[in-house]
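Consider a typical record:
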Amino acid sequence: MLDTIAAISSGYVNQAISIIRITGSDALDVIKQIFTGKIGKNKTIQYGFIKNLDGKIIDEVLVSFFIGSDNFVGETTIEINAHGGIVVTQQILDLILSLGVRKANHGEFTRRAFLNGKISLIKAEAINDLINAKTSKQQEIAINSFNKDKEEKINLFIKDLEYLIGLCEINIDYPEYDDIPILDNKEFNHKLKELIECLEKIVNISENNQVFIRPISIAIVGNPNAGKSSLMNAILNDDKSIVTNIPGTTRDIVESEIIFNNFILKFKDTAGIRESKDEIEKIGIEKAWKEIEISDVIVHVIDSTKGLNNFDFKIQEKAKNNIYLQLWNKMDLVKEQDEDKIYISSKDKKIDNFNKALTNLLINGESEKKSNLSFNQRQTSCLKKALHALKNGYKSINDNFTYDVVVIDLHEAWEALKEILGIVDKEELLDSIFSNFCLGK
């Protein structure tokens, strides 16, 4: 029997109501010692007071009783709904812990729900993704994982793999028997290729949808006084970056994160790129070049009154492997505008053209349509591991290796797929996953 645990499930903030959750075999005994109200039956709520061991009342509460295994956690669970002051809530938790109850680790309630067979690992991760969603798109992707489509898809892959593994192993161990199905290389290759194509499709969808999940780094680069810092301030609608007429004002990377059309964008204002003898400015310029290498998107700001120079051409060359967006700033000072260029006035905060162009660059229509089959980063990593192993197996077959070689790759793919569902004997895997959950969940 697992020990009894407790935690504040509503967070350490002042609020109208707080929830203190107790789960485990001793949960009922604990609440009997501190609650003045009636001890309820399963799925009932009772009114009363929480008092300390000296009889002093701490708070007026409602207590929800979930007795037995017919609940989210799969173990007897008590939830105390108290007034939401931090002091009161902490006093109740400290009182519970003083009775021999252990403070729950991050995600331990959800982890027990998984171990007790109440939810799949995919749904457990989806719960955490939903809690931490910063955009409606992230919320949509998380909630789509509450149904069993993804789990059923992975189980189908596993079943198909087990069939292929079984065929391999029975031909390896009993090749002399006449009553076993003889492996046909052509048919085997066809089934393996089908699996590979299905996995590739899902991996591509999941990787495309990562653009909605993780922050997208956007480096704003260009010459000094091109309007980079003014653009940064216009985007944020705040004076985040220092703006002056003196070239070389920005010496270090200035970062800020915003939500933009369902994307999480991390903008980075960089030093103006030019020749400089100033040691501090040179460090800033080196950092700007580095940001061009590592950022997802490069926003290249050009002074429309001056046009392109050698440094602009170098920036274009450096950014050729990135998503690249060229902006022509100071459009208010230009009489004739080229229809092929994107003009803005960062000083006057006229950046609608930039917003439209950035949205078009980021949105992927296919990922919008098929997000219900999107897997998170950990799950996608497992899918890619399985895909790599299957491709190795497919190559081995075509290179005329024997099935005792091929089956090793199939086993590796099988284990990677089982890892998505948590059907592996890896305690550290669960530690890693649930440590990212908030306390009390």
